[in-house]
Write a structure and sequence with these properties.
The chain is an alpha+beta fold. It has 2 domains: about 5-150; about 155-285, Cathepsin D, subunit A, domain 1 (Beta Barrel). The chain has 7 helices and 11 strands. It has helices at about 5-25, 35-50, 60-75, 85-105, 125-150, 210-215, 215-220, and strands at about 110-115, 120, 155-165, 165-175, 190-195, 230-240, 240-250, 255, 260, 265-270, 280-285. Strands 6-7-10-5-11-4-3-8-9 form a 9-stranded mixed sheet. Strands 1-2 form a two-stranded antiparallel sheet. A hairpin with a 2-residue loop joins strand 1 (about 110-115) and strand 2 (about 120). Helix 3 packs across helix 4.
């Protein structure tokens, strides 16, 4: 008779679900929301435990399994514009992991097993945590290697911005989902992390974090004197926000991968645009000189 420990069952499945959710989001190129991934993983761990509780055998029905997976993905990815892509990647990674576990089982290896549709291990809790740490380290190395190739594929580009006598170079991601445009000229807008652009501004007109979080107040404080007309309020829409404002500044020149685009409006984001700092700005697909 196999004895199943609830703490090990919950922890193992929660850790595996977290790594799968994280991996799917990274493969989809989405910003990572680790708290939401953690909430989805906790939900997956609770479902794994519930499958073995008396009177809840019906939860193993395919419809219940599908509903549980959908709920977990909504908790982790809800609001993302690439929800479908991340969901499909999560399911593919889950199937791949399940197939690998079954293959190892056929080879007669003991350790991680697949039973009743969830993962279980006869290893003690310390070994489970150590294994999870090793898996996370391997995934981190793999995704760092993948990220290094995005420069060669043209997804990551060099962006050089000029504002007066000051210049700044940063890495930008070419994001086809970034359709933000200047409502006056109709030209594409770059979205950059506001704090990383601080060296472009003199101390008297340097946007602070509170200015980025309160664009209207920041506009009133910064758009004075010789800087009148330099700053703008830029309306935008995103998933989960019907209407919002970003503080934006018009730089004198922008060069993307060495190609000059002339003056450009740069929206200053109050939050990071990437997880881990692989890039500091987002640009849409741009052709020719602006």
């Amino acid at each position: 008779m196999t004895v199943i420990y609830v703490d090990t069952l919950f922890l193992l499945n929660a850790v595996i679900d977290y790594l799968l959710l994280l991996s799917a989001a990274r493969l989809a190129g989405e910003p990572l929301c680790r708290l939401r991934f953690g909430a989805g993983a906790v939900l997956g761990g609770c479902y794994a435990v519930a499958l073995f509780l008396p009177g809840l055998e019906y939860l193993s029905h395919p419809l219940c399994r599908g509903a549980s997976a959908m709920l977990m993905m909504l908790v982790a990815y809800g609001g993302s514009r690439r929800l479908l892509r991340q969901g499909l990647l999560f399911l593919l990674l889950t199937c791949a992991l399940g197939g690998g576990v079954v293959a190892i089982g056929l080879l007669g290896q003991q350790g991680l097993t697949l039973g009743n549709g969830v993962f279980y291990s006869a290893l003690d809790l310390k070994m489970v945590l150590l294994s999870a740490a090793v898996c996370y380290g391997v995934l981190t190395l793999v995704f760092r290697r993948l990220a290094s190739h995005t420069v060669l594929s043209g997804e990551l580009i060099s962006a050089k911005l000029t504002l007066g006598e000051r210049k700044l170079e940063l890495t930008a991601l070419v994001d086809t989902g970034n359709t933000l445009t200047d409502p006056v000229s109709g030209q594409p807008v770059m979205v950059a992390e506001g704090e990383c652009l601080s060296s472009l501004f003199p101390s008297t007109h340097r946007p602070r974090l509170e200015d980025l979080r309160d664009p209207a107040g920041g506009m009133a404080r910064l758009g004075t004197g010789a800087w009148r007309g330099r700053f703008r309020l830029l309306p935008y829409r995103s998933v989960g926000m019907d209407r919002g404002l970003l503080l934006a500044v018009r730089v004198d020149a922008a060069a993307l991968n060495g190609q000059e685009h002339g003056p450009m409006l740069v929206a200053l984001s109050p939050t990071p645009v990437s997880d881990g700092g692989g890039y500091r700005a987002l640009v849409g697909v741009m052709n020719g000189r602006g």
